[in-house]
Design goal:
heterodimer, A: about 450 residues, alpha/beta, Alpha-Beta Plaits, 3-methyladenine DNA Glycosylase II, Chain A, domain 3, 3 domains, 19 helices, about 40% helix, about 10% strand, B: about 120 residues, alpha+beta, Heat Shock Protein 90, 4 strands, about 35% helix
């Protein structure tokens, strides 16, 4: 079966402890036969398990760069760099320095993903204004079907809504993601500039998180991603470090580099940290939320119609935004300070490298190719009658379980265990507390 | 209730209608009826919600159904309730609404939401 997600398990490292099952916000993990297993259909790539696992047995599957680039020989090799990468180095390393080093990894062209973010925020700004205008004379109920609009730049948020808050799908900003917008821009630019067909362009995305890798492998609202492959920031970090040590000329670019490197204005760059998107959109009545548990709280509130007078919700699964991604190297606090430096240094970049800058108006916003399908991974059965029978069985079994939620059976809670038993995924004998109690009774 | 309906595979729109209706009726029972009991029964094609209180009852039901009409005390209004939209909102979100009320004895609100 095709693997749907990029979070995976190294079996040898997993000791079968229960840390990950407890931390998973969608209860997608069970320990079976002494090893953790992930129910693909319930995984939203939030990477909580990667952060929690004390044995580093959970990893994000990305491809190794060398293999991929050699497989793409004869093609024009393009890197799209998540702006979080730009924040991973010392204070004297500029954005251009990092992109120069990325090019030296073996790419012909390097595009900063901030370009796509700039396109996204300017299109989102317009979309908010249009919807506000269209709903101007409508009832509160009609307004609350659409507002607050919810950002779709973090794929985890979209997957969470798709599965657990399906009534909020109508709130999502239906724009293609910044990485796809950047890829589209790169393709349009290169096809025109080099007069080559699209098939000769090979795009590699340097990702801060497994969720964006999954969005490439298994896109949410389009048939196929424009991106060919992904690597994690931490996969290329050591090599970039040594390349950056060799950079001597900070203030100019070779002819080759001038051709290759493309950056955005601050409007896109800021989006790597939480709050950047809303400040770039430039609206006042917004809300920002980071961390998956906090996002769940806010989505509950929106679902209950308790959030009024908010036009836009910027939500990122990782604390701090993409700079807090699980595949980054630096802590998010120094990364956030570094990002501010980069934004501040734009006035220098504008002087030194005016030809490298892509303006927000040059990005053509794309809307979703396909409507977002609902994910029914949480329902008990396709048939409501059968679901009701199962529901009753679950209640019955649950009443015989100890309700300690100890996790020793491999399920995160007794309720999850009761459901697993009814769904034929576990046996009641796996409950050691119950077995012990029964044994004591016999004696 | 929301979580249960979702696990049963009820559509998001139907869950939303049921939860709005139930929420409004609960608020009414708390503000006017001094609290009460809620009973939710799920059938393959519908959900039936019954909220019953032993409060003062509704003297003029037709008047109570008018949008904006409210007898909520100031303390409820200060908390953002009591705008007179509760019953109209319930009516809008259910397929069948039955209000059985007796002065001095209490009110029983039965709401049926058919799955669409």
């Amino acid at each position: 079966m095709k693997k749907l997600h990029s979070v995976s398990l190294i079996g040898d490292l997993c000791v079968g402890c229960t840390n990950c099952i407890k931390g998973c916000p969608t209860q997608a993990i069970r320990v079976r036969g002494g090893k953790a297993t992930i129910y693909d259909i319930r995984c939203i790539d939030c990477a909580q398990c990667i952060r929690i696992c004390p044995y580093h047995a959970k990893i994000a599957v990305t491809d190794t760069l060398e293999e991929r680039l050699s497989a793409a020989s004869g093609k024009v090799k393009v890197a799209i760099v998540n702006p979080a990468l730009l924040t991973q180095f010392e204070h004297n390393v500029s954005r251009i320095d990092v992109l120069k080093a990325v090019r030296q990894l073996g790419f012909d062209y390097v595009f900063d993903e901030s370009i796509g973010y700039a396109g996204y925020v300017s299109a989102a700004r317009q979309m908010i204004a249009e919807k506000q205008e269209a709903l101007k004379d409508c009832s509160d109920d009609e307004i609350s079907e659409v507002f607050p609009m919810i950002s779709t730049t973090c794929p985890v948020v979209v997957r969470l809504i798709q599965m657990k808050y399906r009534a909020l799908i109508s709130h999502l900003v239906t724009l293609d993601s910044p990485m796809e917008l950047t890829a589209q821009h790169a393709i349009d630019y290169l096809c025109l500039k080099l007069q080559i067909p699209r098939t000769l362009i090979y795009i590699c995305y340097i990702s801060p998180c497994p969720a964006k890798v999954t969005a490439v492998i298994n896109p949410l609202w389009k048939k196929k991603s424009l991106i060919s492959t992904c690597v994690g920031i931490h996969d290329v970090y050591p090599q970039l470090r040594s390349l950056l040590d060799k950079v001597t000329n900070h203030d100019s670019l070779t002819h080759e580099e001038q051709r290759a490197i493309h950056i955005s204005e601050p409007i896109g760059l800021r989006c790597a940290a939480i709050g950047g998107e809303t400040s770039s959109i430039g609206i006042e009545n917004y809300l920002t939320v980071d961390g998956i548990e906090n996002i769940i709280d806010i989505l509950e509130e929106i679902d209950r119609d308790n959030i009024k007078n908010i036009a836009y919700v910027e939500a990122t699964c990782c604390f701090g935004g993409c700079i807090g991604g699980p595949l980054t190297v630096m802590n998010r606090f120094t990364a956030s300070a570094k990002l501010r430096d980069h934004v501040h240094d734009f006035f220098l970049e504008k002087e030194l490298f005016p030809n490298q800058i892509v303006h927000e108006d040059d990005i053509i916003p794309q809307v979703w190719e396909l409507p977002l399908p609902e994910n029914h991974a949480m329902r008990l059965s396709e048939n409501i009658g059968e679901a009701m029978t199962k529901y009753e069985q679950i209640d019955e079994i649950l009443s015989t379980l100890p309700q300690l939620d100890c996790g020793a059976c491999g399920a995160p809670s007794c309720a999850a265990m009761a459901e697993d038993i009814v769904q034929g995924r576990a046996s009641i004998n796996n409950c050691i507390i119950r077995a012990k109690r029964n044994k004591l009774k016999e004696e | 209730m929301k979580k249960s309906l979702s696990r049963l595979g009820v559509k998001a729109e139907d869950i939303k209608r049921a939860s709005i209706a139930m929420y409004e009726a609960e608020i009414n029972a708390v503000i006017h009826g001094h609290g009460g009991m809620a009973e939710v029964s799920v059938f393959p094609e519908k959900v039936v919600i019954v909220i019953e209180d032993h409060g003062p009852g509704i003297p003029d039901l037709d008047q109570a159904m008018v949008a904006g009409w409210s007898t909520a005390p100031d303390i409820a209004r200060e908390m953002g309730f009591g705008a007179g939209m509760g019953l109209p909102n319930i009516k809008k979100n259910c397929d069948e609404l039955n209000i059985d009320t007796k002065i001095g004895e209490g009110t029983k609100v039965t709401m049926i939401i058919q799955f669409r």
